[in-house]
Amino acid sequence: MADAKKTIKKGFFEVVAPMTSAKIHVYGNSADELVGKTVKLDLTRSLRGKSFELVMKLAKDGEQLVGQPQSLSLAGSFIRRSMRNSADYVEDSFIAETKEGKVRLKPFMISRNRVSRAVLNELRVQARKILETHVRMRTPKELFSDLMTGKIQKELASKLKKVYPLAFCEIRVFELVPEKKQF
User: Fold this and answer.
1) Range of 33-37, 55-59, 79-83, 95-99 with top mean pLDDT
2) Cα dihedral 99/94/72/30 (nearest 10)
3) Mean pLDDT across the chain
4) Cβ proximity of 16 and 64 under 8 Å
5) Which one of 88, 97, 105, 166 has the fewest beta carbons within 10 angstroms of its own beta carbon?
6) In whole angstroms, what is the distance from residue 95 CA to residue 177 CA?
């Protein structure tokens, strides 16, 4: 006698992504099984060539699956394409407080020419101050949409121009920092 295994038919489930116009379909047994899984979305086409990658965690809202953004990162190939031999770059990584939690920010800037370490350090310090004040007044959802539209980057570049003119000013990585569980 052969054991008759009960198979559950897999199918595609639609995911609603509030910040993007992309249609997302995820393959699985049931919508409940997909809750907590992550989906990676390439936003290159929708952002006119800027290679952002959005990672969303799936959650259930009523009967619908909803993608909640977890991180937004710039592709390394996009940064390498922007680099020049006759320029210096500045990067930083820090955790900032928002209205609803903490986020990790990694700004990346490329100067127009070679500059001294003092200028690079001043760019890094000023960028951190500007970003921390901007982030403190907003929710993570607002920040994700501001980053995707380029609003934060434009503001940052215009303020840092006073220190030294930049050829490239982007937020390389923006991600939510998970809260630590207490025992």
Assistant:
1) 95-99
2) -70
3) 87
4) yes
5) 97
6) 8
**Please, are residues 29 and 40 in contact by the beta-carbon 8 Å criterion?**
no
Distance CA 92, CA 67 (A): 28
Q: How far apart are CA 130 and CA 127, in angstroms?
A: 5
Q: Give the CA radius of gyration of the chain.
A: 20
Neighbours of 169 (CB within 10 A): 23
**Its pTM surpasses 0.70:** yes
Relative to beta strand 101-111, strand 89-91 is antiparallel
CA distance 9 to 29: 6
Biggest CA-to-CA distance, the chain: 81
CB atoms within 10 A of CB 137: 9
